[in-house]
């Protein structure tokens, strides 16, 4: 009686197929995992091309390519494989260091250092990534993660050196300060969005600059600036406020554990809480949410407060975990990187966690790559950007690899709605 | 070598240090220089450790900001030789400090500028408010004051107040646009000699001077401007040279050839050992009065002899 | 009108023997994934003919016409114009072939003037490659066409300021200035008063008389019978019959739906009780700050259905939104059982016992990316048993969803399917199920069956009457006069933000039609 | 028949205007009164009672407009209050914008009187500095206008700047020709634009996401190549010739305006001409009508035979041309060498100028000039030693943007289909 599609009867039948055949079938279809994997692969390939074309020595071998192609190919291959091997060794483990540890010539710290570095870089990114991802789920594009993280750094850092409290409590207070600072910085664009409709992309970008300038001013003020220094650097946080860490030289600290816990919390918030229900409804269809009695404006404000708090916590992790004091670069780029992490993690909490670890790995490995073969960290930026482009345009990946259509996964993080 | 967040191309101390390493490469065959640029303060330690793992013989940190990180890493790896530019680390025997009494040379530049200025106003600005920058500005300010005292004049200095340790900064070592804006502001205020202590940002000031058809001149810093930024040589009155390049080169060559590098006293560049100096006047040679030149020479001798002391809160202890 | 029809038909019959057919569609097939929207459809339209394409919502009429107009490409089949096969890759090709279309959703740029809209794509320009617009000539062309076909439009008015009837005239003028030989009109009468509808039918006939062919898409039997030379009935993507205007309405309806349907809403007389909703002196502005509801008073009692009739865009939307707390009123009072609703949030209004079926289902009614189960608790997610304001209770949500799906006959593979995969009728049933599954004092239903298939219409109408019969006050807003007449116990006619009269559903259609056009007759005033 | 014609006459009657008391005009008026009071009281009391000189020449010498700083701060503050009061009292619509502008301008003057009291502000230097700082913003915002009026959100202006700047430096140096540099800047902008176009129009990726990521890609690629190529050998790869400054005799002698507008480089003229050309193009030509239609209601444009995607591709690429030329400013006008991340967020400010300017060329010009002025002023005041820390002065443009977006210019309406990819159903 209607034109609706007849209920699909095939689905239960398919479940009876052997898991293996289903697996093989799905492997080359455009599902999330395959596309993610291929996106990374594509990015690495393009990165390799960049490495080769920008290396004058290798490029020189191409000038007589027709005469002796093997030279050019070997030279390229050597360079690329060494660079990417470094990426791996710097991010996960160096087989040499591990075997040295086992036969007693090395120590466990050296063997575990790459992983430690990866997790150290990943920890703040988890928070900023979650911040962006959560806002995204609620239909807001929080480019302000950077500013919120900066303010989080400031409040956590100031709480870390300005007040004296017993260990443990001090840490909690400092973390809370970071959270609240970031939340305040998120509250402003949320309020403006809800009240005046001011687009959060613009307001948060402007607040990023404002936050950085504020930090630059603050660390030169009496009481904040390190009295023994004339340059822009603050006092060191008290040891009572520092996140517990593994013994040096390993840098990995409690922040990563906190990150996992917070990821679980955000996952619960999105999927199982009333607020999560609201924010998801507001995210995909604000008019329907409004019609069903939800307050879209209030949700936007709450959302930005929570997102800001998460980013602020990321900033706090940075200060209390690795940096120990405020400088004008203290937040690095964690806010902007969080943006990419969220996109890569498809705005899902656990996806964001894994994306952050991947980025942490790229970062840690990139350092070794720079040290060893002198390929600058900018390559890592290029890789990160490319991965996200491919992930965001699954149709492109599909076209390049001739994937078949996925049966289930709806691809395309199409959040397009403009201003 | 590990740079601070200014990066290898800061047209300032990172660049100079890197040039030193490059020069060392030509001097001693065993030297294979590598560098890594830090993007955030948190990177200093892992970057240094990266070189430790690479078993580099001489690991150089550039900039006082890296002091703490270098201290930590050096303490954990006492068998490796470290070096640091613009800082000294107490108690670390394996860190070779290279410091510079830059204020001495800047003092001469200040005197020269005050004497050369026709408008009676000179200016300086910095890239960021950090000791390796403000030390220039302190010396410059004192030099101007010396001139005023000696001649009973009232040459004003814009952009730096030594007593208050406060002045104009571009907050950027790589933005000629900001340098240009600052410099043109000073010119509008009447300054006709400007000393930008801001790496690449200072190129903007040279730009302004070029557009002034000879009215405004620039005192460059770090490396002789007529070599570092040859295209602007016609506006460089002189340069306050801080010879990081040579210092680094010597240290590395020494390290590579097995000579010991002692952490104390380390290296202190002064007017006396030519670690800091005033570069030749180059194209301004004919424009500067001989008497002024002589006075500057005399001052230099006085400083070397210790009869004049130039002080700065940023000066190495 | 009859005269037009007869003469039109006879002249065209005689000509069709000599000259080739104007348009022929052969075996047109279009699939969207698993859904076959058009299944080997054949249609022939002859010159000077008004050819009606009849079918219920979702039957595939618009899809077919979009292929003819080049907006979609058929998977199979061919289009012949004057006997020659043509491929329409874009509307550009269709326009070149002499085909014009007036779309169901108007294709006008709201911030452009009428003249700009009409000129768009066929601009008169000077200055060669520079393409300098010749505004004067564009305007003159508009006025000429407007005059020639008796369709008054103001070339300088901004389209967004025009009422829908006028916008439709602009659409027709736009097509006519392009010298079309075949004009497709997709559901053109949906937004018109009965009088405007008659007017439009007359225009269509006169166009046909000049030799132009007209394809008229509709699901309204009355109009088909009044104007068409031939009728093609489409059901579920297939041609199920070709009929003439002589075919009876019942036969046509049976063809269209595939079974016998009762077009009447069966209901017992109302038993109105206490006043539930009282609106007095209500003034509401629209988004642009223009007064949309102008001093409206109305009362809805328990156990009755008050229908609001009126052409779309006469303030009904704003009236309903003001009642629901979605739009702050400028002045006036709204009370629910003596308690004021002024200043209440939508949530508070809903919690006070008001059910709301919004007019734009896909925008306001459902969240398409949510599951059926989630949509069914869209306004109750934070209340026991579905949640406690802090966390959700997925088990309770799922259980209740299973019940509702059965109770309201929602055709879905599972309550966990996303609503976007459901047909329009079933989506609407989700909305109705959600709003009617809690105790209500008042039900506000706006366009409750827009874009819904006949089967679902019947079901929804029955649910509304059922709600009335258990003593709920019901306010139904619809621009389909038939629906209002069928459902309502009293009808308030709205025109330009005012309630012109409250009349009985037994009043003749023509009279109500006049009121909808803003003409107050003495009889109507008496009933007030 | 007659009834329908009656309805037609009704259609044409004016819609009733709203008469709520706290309408936008009054809210703005109240805001002006408040900031005017702040100016008169706070600026007035802080200001030195010394002469503030606004000199006509480039420096301290010569003719000047002088006013006692304290008096000026109070006077202009009072004028701001008066303008706000007039708005509050309710004036005719055509005076509203004028009064609003007057209020803001006098507020700025009040601030200046406080800051400049006892010192001076060279007008020519300030204006030409503002214009120069505004230059890339104008071009960037115009690129945004081109893209967004056709319905493609362009957050990638920053990336286009960077690629433009990089291309100009690299090719300009290799070819030792400033014109080759300019052309490659355009090519650089177009490369990013074409990626934006393909990903947004063909692959339907969220346009804001694409923009952000393309910025990063441009940053990465230019930074990477800079480190590998330019840094080791700056003379060979990174010392492009500069765009010459041209002086138009006669016109350049007009006081104040002359040196600002007629003794400058080609890019400034290009930008100003483009503002006019794009404005006329959008409002008066077939291309403009179609562009606007595609940006507002692409389906409607499609149904009248306009190639929606084709037009969008074209406009995005044109935007790339303009933004690329804007990128050339950084290397060929401003500095003479490329540097990593040298655009330092200018692309985002251009984006703000676009929105601030309500997606119109002249609005964008005004907003860009405002940002340029704010930046120049911040630079100037920090150099002459303002009591306000320069970090706060530097915040001015950003805070102004927030205020503007949040209410001063009213709820800005983007083209209706901006950011919505066109998919045929």
TrEMBL record, chain A:
Membrane-topology annotation of the record: Multi-pass membrane protein
UniProt keyword list: Cell membrane, Membrane, Transmembrane, Transmembrane helix
Keyword Disulfide bond recorded: no
Subcellular location: Cell membrane
Pfam families the record matches: BPD_transp_2
TM segment ranges: 28-53, 118-136, 148-165, 171-192, 201-220, 252-270, 300-320, 379-401
Official protein name in the record: ABC transporter permease
């Amino acid at each position: 009686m209607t034109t609706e599609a007849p209920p699909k009867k095939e689905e239960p039948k398919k479940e009876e197929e052997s898991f293996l055949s289903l697996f093989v079938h799905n492997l080359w279809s455009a599902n999330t995992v395959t596309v993610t994997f291929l996106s990374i692969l594509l990015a690495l390939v393009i990165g390799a091309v960049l490495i080769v074309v920008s290396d004058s020595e290798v490029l020189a071998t191409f000038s007589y390519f027709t005469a002796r192609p093997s030279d050019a190919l070997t030279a390229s291959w050597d360079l690329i494989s060494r660079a990417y091997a470094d990426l791996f060794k710097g991010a996960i483990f160096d087989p040499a260091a591990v075997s040295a540890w086992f036969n007693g010539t090395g120590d466990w710290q050296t063997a575990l250092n790459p992983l430690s570095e990866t997790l150290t870089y990943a920890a703040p990114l988890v928070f900023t990534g979650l911040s962006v991802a959560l806002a995204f789920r609620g239909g807001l594009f929080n480019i302000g993660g950077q500013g919120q993280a900066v303010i989080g750094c400031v409040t956590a850092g100031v709480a870390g050196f300005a007040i004296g409290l017993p260990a443990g409590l001090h840490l909690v207070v400092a973390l809370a300060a970071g959270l609240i600072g970031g939340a305040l910085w998120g509250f402003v664009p949320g309020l403006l969005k809800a009240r005046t409709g001011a687009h959060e992309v613009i307001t948060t970008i402007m607040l990023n600059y404002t936050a950085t300038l504020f930090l630059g001013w603050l660390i030169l003020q009496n009481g904040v600036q390190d009295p023994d220094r004339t340059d822009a650097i603050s006092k060191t946080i008290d040891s009572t406020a520092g996140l517990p860490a593994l013994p040096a030289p390993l840098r990995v600290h409690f922040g990563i554990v906190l990150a996992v816990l917070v990821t679980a919390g955000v996952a619960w918030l999105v999927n199982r809480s009333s607020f999560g229900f609201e924010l998801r409804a507001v995210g995909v269809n604000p008019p329907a949410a409004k019609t069903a009695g939800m307050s879209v404006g209030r949700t936007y404000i709450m959302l930005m407060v929570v997102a800001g708090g998460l980013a602020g916590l990321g900033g706090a992790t940075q200060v209390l975990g690795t940096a120990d004091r405020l400088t004008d670069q203290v937040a690095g780029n964690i806010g902007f990187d969080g943006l990419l992490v969220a996109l890569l993690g498809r705005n899902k909490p656990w996806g964001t966690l894994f994306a952050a670890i991947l980025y942490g790995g790229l970062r840690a490995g990139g350092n070794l790559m720079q040290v060893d073969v002198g390929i600058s960290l900018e390559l890592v930026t290029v890789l990160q950007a490319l991965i996200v482009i491919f992930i965001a345009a699954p149709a492109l990946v599909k076209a390049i690899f001739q994937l078949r259509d996925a049966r289930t996964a709806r691809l395309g993080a199409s959040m397009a709605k403009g201003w | 070598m590990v740079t601070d967040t200014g990066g290898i191309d800061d047209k300032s101390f990172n660049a100079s240090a890197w040039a030193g390493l490059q020069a060392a490469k030509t001097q001693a065959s065993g030297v294979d220089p590598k560098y890594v640029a830090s993007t955030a303060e948190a990177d200093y330690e892992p970057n240094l450790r990266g070189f430790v793992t690479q078993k580099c013989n001489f690991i150089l940190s550039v900039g006082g900001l890296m002091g703490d990180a270098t201290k930590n890493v050096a303490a954990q790896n006492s068998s490796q030789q470290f070096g640091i530019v613009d800082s000294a680390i107490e108690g670390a025997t394996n860190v070779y400090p290279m410091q510079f009494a830059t204020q001495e040379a800047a003092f001469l530049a200040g005197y020269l500028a005050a004497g050369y200025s026709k408008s009676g106003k000179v200016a300086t600005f910095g890239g960021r408010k950090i000791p390796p920058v403000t030390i220039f500005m302190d010396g410059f300010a004192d030099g101007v004051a010396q001139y005023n005292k000696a001649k009973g004049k009232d040459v004003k200095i814009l952009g730096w107040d030594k007593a208050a340790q406060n002045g104009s900064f571009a907050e950027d070592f790589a933005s000629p646009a900001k340098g240009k804006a600052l410099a043109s502001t000073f010119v509008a205020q009447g300054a006709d000699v400007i000393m930008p202590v801001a790496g690449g940002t200072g190129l903007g000031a040279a730009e302004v001077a070029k557009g002034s058809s000879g009215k405004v001149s620039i005192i460059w810093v770090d490396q002789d401007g007529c070599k570092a930024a040859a295209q602007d040589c016609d506006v460089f009155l002189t340069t306050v040279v801080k010879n990081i390049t040579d210092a680094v080169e010597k240290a590395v060559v020494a390290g590579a050839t097995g000579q010991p590098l002692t952490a104390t006293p380390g290296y202190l560049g002064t007017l006396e050992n030519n670690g800091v100096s005033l570069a030749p006047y180059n194209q301004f040679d004919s424009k500067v009065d001989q008497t002024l030149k002589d006075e500057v020479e005399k001052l230099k001798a006085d400083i070397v002899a210790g009869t004049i002391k130039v002080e700065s809160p940023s000066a190495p202890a | 009108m009859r005269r037009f029809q007869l003469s039109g038909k006879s002249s065209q019959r005689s000509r069709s023997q000599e000259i080739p057919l104007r348009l022929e569609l052969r075996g047109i097939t279009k699939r969207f994934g698993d859904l076959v929207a058009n299944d080997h459809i054949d249609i022939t339209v002859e010159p000077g003919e008004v050819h009606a394409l009849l079918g219920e919502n979702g039957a595939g009429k618009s899809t077919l016409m979009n292929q003819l107009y080049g907006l979609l490409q058929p998977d199979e089949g061919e289009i012949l114009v004057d006997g020659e096969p043509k491929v329409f890759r874009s509307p550009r090709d269709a326009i070149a072939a002499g085909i014009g279309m007036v779309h169901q959703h108007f294709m006008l740029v709201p911030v452009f003037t009428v003249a700009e809209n009409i000129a768009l794509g066929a601009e008169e320009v000077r200055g060669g490659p520079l393409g300098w617009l010749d505004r004067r000539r564009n305007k003159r062309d508009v006025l000429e066409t407007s005059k020639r076909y008796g369709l008054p439009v103001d070339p300088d008015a901004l389209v967004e300021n025009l009422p829908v009837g006028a916008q439709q005239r602009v659409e027709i003028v736009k097509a006519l200035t392009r010298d079309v030989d075949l004009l497709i009109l997709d559901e053109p009468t949906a937004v018109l008063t009965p009088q405007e509808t008659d007017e439009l039918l007359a225009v269509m006939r006169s166009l046909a008389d000049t030799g132009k062919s007209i394809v008229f898409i509709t699901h309204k039997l009355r109009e088909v019978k009044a104007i068409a030379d031939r009728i093609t009935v489409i059901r579920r993507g297939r041609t199920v019959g070709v009929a003439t205007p002589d075919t009876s309405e019942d036969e046509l309806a049976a063809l269209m739906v595939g079974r016998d349907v009762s077009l009447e809403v069966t209901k017992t007389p109302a038993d109105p009780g206490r006043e539930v909703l009282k609106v007095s002196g209500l003034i509401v502005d629209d988004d642009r700050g223009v007064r949309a509801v102008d001093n409206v008073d109305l009362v809805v009692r328990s156990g009755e259905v008050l229908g609001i009739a009126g052409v779309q865009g006469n303030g009904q939307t704003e009236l309903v939104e003001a009642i629901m707390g979605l739009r702050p009123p400028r002045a006036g009072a709204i009370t629910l059982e003596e308690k004021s609703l002024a200043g209440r949030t939508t949530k508070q209004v809903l919690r006070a016992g008001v059910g709301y079926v919004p007019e734009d289902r896909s925008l306001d009614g459902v969240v398409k990316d949510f599951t059926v189960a989630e949509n069914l608790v869209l306004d109750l997610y934070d209340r026991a048993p579905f949640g406690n304001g802090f966390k959700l209770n997925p088990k309770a949500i799922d259980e209740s969803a299973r019940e509702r799906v059965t109770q309201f006959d929602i055709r879905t593979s599972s309550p966990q399917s996303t609503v976007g995969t459901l047909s329009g009728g079933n989506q609407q049933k989700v909305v109705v199920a959600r709003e009617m599954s809690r105790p209500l004092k008042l039900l506000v239903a706006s366009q409750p069956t827009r874009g819904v298939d006949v089967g679902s219409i019947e079901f929804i109408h029955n649910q509304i009457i059922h709600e009335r019969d258990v003593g709920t006050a019901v306010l139904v807003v619809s621009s389909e006069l038939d629906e209002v007449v069928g459902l309502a116990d009293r009808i308030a006619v709205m025109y330009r933000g005012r309630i012109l009269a409250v009349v009985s559903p037994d009043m003749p259609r023509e009279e109500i039609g006049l009121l909808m056009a803003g003409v107050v007759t003495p009889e109507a005033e008496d009933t007030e | 028949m007659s009834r329908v014609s009656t309805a037609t006459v009704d259609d044409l009657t004016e819609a009733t205007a709203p008469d709520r008391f706290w309408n936008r005009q009054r809210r703005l008026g109240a805001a002006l009164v408040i900031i005017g009071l702040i100016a008169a009281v706070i600026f007035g009391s802080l200001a030195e009672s010394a002469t503030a000189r606004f000199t006509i020449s480039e420096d301290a010498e010569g003719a000047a407009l002088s006013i006692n700083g304290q008096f000026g701060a109070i006077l202009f503050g009072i004028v701001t209050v008066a303008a706000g009061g007039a708005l509050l009292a309710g004036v005719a619509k055509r005076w509203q914008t004028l009064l609003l502008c007057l209020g803001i301008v006098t507020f700025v003057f009040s601030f200046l009187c406080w800051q400049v009291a006892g010192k001076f502000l060279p007008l020519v230097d300030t204006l030409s500095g503002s214009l120069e700082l505004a230059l890339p913003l104008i071009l960037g915002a115009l690129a945004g206008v081109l893209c967004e009026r056709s319905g493609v959100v362009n957050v990638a202006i920053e990336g286009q700047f960077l690629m433009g700047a990089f291309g100009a430096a690299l090719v300009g140096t290799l070819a030792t020709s400033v014109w080759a540099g300019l052309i490659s800047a355009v090519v650089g902008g177009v490369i990013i634009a074409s990626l934006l176009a393909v990903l947004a129009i063909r692959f339907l990726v969220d346009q804001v996401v694409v923009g952000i990521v393309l910025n990063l890609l441009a940053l990465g690629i230019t930074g990477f190549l800079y480190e590998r190529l330019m840094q080791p050998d700056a003379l060979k790869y990174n010392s492009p010739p500069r765009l010459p400054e041209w002086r138009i005799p006669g016109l350049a002698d007009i006081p104040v305006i002359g040196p600002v507008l007629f003794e400058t480089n080609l890019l400034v003229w290009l930008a100003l001409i483009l503002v006019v050309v794009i404005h006329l193009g959008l409002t008066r030509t077939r291309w403009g009508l179609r562009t606007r239609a595609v940006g507002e209601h692409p389906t409607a444009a499609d149904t009248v035979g306009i190639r929606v995607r084709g037009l969008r591709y074209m406009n995005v690429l044109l935007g790339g041309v303009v933004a690329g030329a804007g990128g050339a400013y950084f290397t060929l006008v401003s500095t003479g060498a490329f540097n990593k991340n040298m655009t330092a967020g200018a692309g985002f400010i251009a984006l703000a100028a676009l929105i601030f300017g309500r997606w119109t060329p002249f609005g964008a010009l005004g907003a860009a000039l405002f940002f340029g002025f704010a930046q120049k002023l911040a630079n100037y005041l920090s150099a002459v030693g303002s009591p306000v820390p320069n970090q706060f002065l530097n915040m001015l443009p950003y805070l102004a943007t927030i205020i503007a977006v949040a209410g001063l210019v009213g709820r800005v309406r983007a083209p209706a289909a901006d950011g919505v990819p066109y998919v045929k159903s």
